[in-house]
Design brief:
The longest helix has 21 residues. Strands 1-3-4-6-5 form a five-stranded mixed barrel. The chain has 135 residues and is an alpha+beta fold. 23% of the residues lie in helices and 49% in strands. It has one domain: Nucleic acid-binding proteins (OB fold (Dihydrolipoamide Acetyltransferase, E2P)). The chain is built from two helices and six strands; from the N terminus they run ββββαββα. A hairpin with a 5-residue loop joins strand 5 and strand 6.
Length: 135
């Protein structure tokens, strides 16, 4: 039997980090995926689906250290449904993806900083270099 989920989406907020009683790191985050289509009137319709993602151990450390709200990621894992009783004794359920693999697909928020600093350096270097031209 196969239980596998593969998602590409953006984080809704920064991951929440916690630890199990034995010290294993756990991160939880929500991932948004969306689909677009045109309805019968030709109007563009967009639907966003939210997925709960949980990671453990080394993968949790990586997610906790590098993922931030808005980051585009690929997540692969298995679908799991858990149940518990809330403080009022009502039985609750949640379905989540227990991730076994995660890949960051963009450097949102970092590439602009890198481009700005390299542009500034290049401009500065060109200006300095033009002052040294002997003719």
């Amino acid at each position: 039997m196969i239980n596998k989920a593969m998602l590409i989406g953006r984080l809704g907020k920064d991951p929440e980090v916690r630890y199990t009683p034995d010290g294993t790191m756990v991160t939880n985050f929500n991932l948004a995926t969306d689909e677009q289509w045109k309805d019968k009137n030709g109007e563009k319709v967009q639907k966003t689906e939210w997925h709960r993602i949980v990671t453990f151990g080394k993968l949790a450390e990586i997610c906790g250290n590098y993922l931030v709200k808005g980051k585009l990621v690929f997540v692969e894992g298995r679908i799991q449904t858990r149940s518990w009783e809330d403080k009022d004794g009502v039985k609750r359920f949640t379905t989540e993806i227990v991730a076994s693999n995660m890949q960051m697909l963009d450097s949102k928020g970092q590439s602009k900083t890198m481009e700005d600093s390299s542009s500034d350096s290049a401009a500065g270097g060109a200006a300095t270099g033009s002052d040294d031209v002997p003719f």
